[in-house]
Amino acid sequence: MAKKLDPLLHNELRLSILSLLISLEHADFGYLLEKTEASKGNLSVQLTKLKEVGYIEITKTFKNNYPYTECKVCPKGIEAFEKYVNEISKLLNLKK
Questions:
Q1: Model pLDDT, residue 3
Q2: Could you give the 3-state DSSP secondary structure of residue 28?
């Protein structure tokens, strides 16, 4: 029997964000906005949730007098993502 899936990652947008960040060293807010096709408000809320549990790190600075937000995945986020993928694979009978 598979363990319960991480409820934080069992959300389409948060899973998309982490999936993108896993494959990149870091990504800015605009890139994540474009790739996820989320609204600015929803993306911001979901990034905050991922940050609060230590899955991602968010750095806010300014570039050319405009706010600039950069995100990167933390080791805890990588571990949670890999566990989630493993558990979902078991549920789908992709892994024994």
A1: 62
A2: strand
59: tokens are 């750095």
CA distances from 85 to 3, 54, 65, 67, 94 (A): 12, 18, 40, 33, 10
d(CA 13, CA 16): 5
Helix ranges, the chain (H): 12-22, 29-36, 40-52, 75-91
User: For the chain, what are the domain ranges?
Assistant: 12-91
12-65: pLDDT as tens digits = 999 999 999 999 989 999 999 999 999 999 999 999 999 999 999 999 999 999
The backbone torsions φ and ψ at residue 25, rounded to the nearest 5 degrees and listed phi first, read: -70, -40
pTM: 0.88
The predicted pLDDT at position 5 comes to: 86
**Thinking of the domain 12-91, which architecture would CATH place it in?**
Orthogonal Bundle (1.10)
State the residue for tokens 């990504």.
27
